[in-house]
Design brief:
The chain is mainly α. The protein contains 2 helices and 2 strands.
């Protein structure tokens, strides 16, 4: 019910959002450019440096913990599986 939009099927009624019609997929450059983009997005950098800023004003309770705690836990789990 809250899933994908499909060409030829009416979008669900919504008082909050007017759904735009489904359009053709975006054509990005030629095959070489698409390959470069795909390789860039799927090949992790060798020595990544990342700065993460968290907003301490995220006190909303989600599943028994604050949103900030949930985000921090998810980041810790992700960092643990990254290569050194």
């Amino acid at each position: 019910k809250a899933g994908f939009r499909v060409e030829g099927v009416e979008p669900p009624a919504s008082e909050a959002v007017d759904f735009a019609p489904v359009s053709a997929p975006l054509n990005v450059g030629d095959i070489a450019l698409r390959t470069t983009i795909a390789e860039t997005l799927t090949t992790p950098p060798q020595s990544p440096t990342v700065t993460i800023m968290l907003d301490q004003s995220m006190p909303v309770d989600e599943g028994g913990a604050t949103r900030l705690a949930n985000v921090a836990d998810a980041l810790k789990a992700r960092i643990q599986v990254l290569p050194p």
